[in-house]
Amino acid sequence: MNTIKTMLLVGLSGIFMLAGCGPGAESKTTAKETFAQLAGKSWKLDRWVDAAGATQEVGAITFAVSEENRVGGNASVNRYMGQAKFTADGALDLSSGFATTMMMGPQPAMEREVRYLTALRQVRHASLEKDRLVLTGDGSLRLEFLPDVKSTQAK
Question: Out of 3, 19, 104, 134, which residue is the most buried by the measure of CB atoms under 10 Å away?
């Protein structure tokens, strides 16, 4: 009887180990590891949910990562640039803010730009989910980007 129980436990352990190796068991990467994969790529904002859970209009917003973890893009009207930092546990820190160009544009676009740059400072994690770059942070904040095809074609 003990032999049957042992065989059953060994068999179940093997099944659980194999299940842990399947496609649903992807390892969680840190924001720093994700950024290393993003260098030289540009992304276009496709979906934006703010920290309060409200869906925002995406406009013409882009996000790019260059060498040394510099970030930048189009914030709606103006270009922005800044430096990504990482905490000891690998979380993303964009709280130091961004420098921007100083052009004027339509009021709704300018307001969207301020909201976007504020949201970007609240981001704490970056991940790649299928073909999307996903930045998440405080509350329900979620910024989903698709590869920026125009930027890729221009290179």
Answer: 134
